[in-house]
Design a protein that fits this description.
alpha/beta; 2 domains; Rossmann fold; 11 helices; five-stranded parallel beta sheet; globular; seven-stranded parallel beta sheet
Amino acid sequence: MTKLVFVTQQVDPGHPTLGAAADMVAALAARVDEVVVLASAAAVDALPVNVRFRSFAAPTQALRGLRFELALARELLRGRPDGLLAHMSPVYALLAAPLLRPLGVPVLLWFTQQRAGAHLRRSLRVVDAVLSVDERSVPIRSPKVRGIGHGIDTSLFACMPRREGSLRLLSLGRYSEVKGHDVAVRALASLPEAELTVCGEQATPHDATVRASLAALVLELGLEERVRLADAVPRTEIPALLARTDVLVNATHGPSADKVVFEALASCVPVVAASPVFDALLPEALRYPDGDAEELARSVVRAASLPEEERTALRLRVEAEHSVGHWADEVLAAVRLARG
């Protein structure tokens, strides 16, 4: 019997930032006998039948860590798993390692953020591998870091016919400076026939400050008729949102690998992006220097005229290299490699 433990904060298909974890769990469950999800919360009714859920919810971080270790220890009493994958949270890999390493159980970490905190640096000492979209989408260089592609459920996204009229741009992501929404707004000043929608989560008080600064920038540039600053969209609504989009603007600073880029391409929506991580995926014409609003605007014009066959080819690339099925196969291959 093959059993994997999947650790994350929350498993809910509708969550605006963590919703993809539900697809990852389902893809793993389709390939093994059992997946055990350890999380603070889960939409249990949405889990496959061979997935069990154990909660470690608690009001403080310290208590969550303790309850996580207790939940993992109880799970070990039911039988040794073949591997554990910590999703985006290095701390859980650190907490799991003392229990699993003596038993020979591989500990893996999936991580795609740009910030390298102390937990990530420490986890490199105890995990068997850090899996990410690309080696550059992890802010630490190590032989343990492996690029395996993203995990996108491409079946959720469909190519829509191109439409006439004003150019509809979308910038999707948390209201944080790193997302570069301000660059997208400044680029709109050079695109008189375009309109821009920004959708993002306000996860911290500072995010609200960033959103207020964006609103002030919109007024300063006289773009209030063509820019809409909206709240986060439930993940289940992303396919419909992309279907109403002509070009996705991904202005995130640094070597990011935002999943919405792959989701847009799966919808045959062209993307303009600055991140070097996309240099092997996006044509040069759709990439621009980080922070350069003028060149971003020129890239948008080129993207809007991208031929249908090139849009379709990009979707096929995502299906082949970044589908959630491909991702799950790579995770299991990493587990087998770690087990020897």
